[in-house]
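Data availability (excerpt). The following record was deposited with the supplementary files.
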Amino acid sequence: MKKVAIIIFTVLFFVGITIYADRATRLPRKPAMTMAASSAVSKPEPVLALKNLDNKEVVLADLKGKVVFVNFWATWCGPCQDEIPSLIDLQSKYASKGFTVLGIAMDEEGKSVVAPFVAKTKYDVNGQKELINYPIVIGTDEAADKFGGIMGYPTSFLISRSGKQIMKFQGPPDLDEIVKAIDSEE
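Predicted structure:
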């Protein structure tokens, strides 16, 4: 009986030490929304020019003066589909205040898949069925690399009016943060 008690005590002691060591050495969790470059200093927007669904070039720098929500997504991505109604709503509400979403479709098949998808797929936005109402361009791996690489979809970047990356969102964006950026003067 005494041996069993010693074994139980020893096991509990090592479990306690393990839990303590784990908590003491654990790295802090990174939130889904992070400041660009993980610092208070913003990074300039990358030089980026991509073709839209009409084969016209869209240059990111041409959108300077607007708050731009750059959204890397794909037609096959479930979480991307889940956030599109919110992006349609943001575009409708804030386009007149100098805001735009720029959807960068990362489908490997490119325009042949993306164009019909965008033309046909309607989303429930505040009880109405609506098509995507913001510009869509066909993305490339080089475009993703210019933003520091994309680990998964959706990944989005918020660009200030002055052309600086101010936030990165891995997964669904914080809509309140986007509205704050739209309302700010920078």
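Summary of structural features: Residues 27-41 have pLDDT under 50 and may be disordered.
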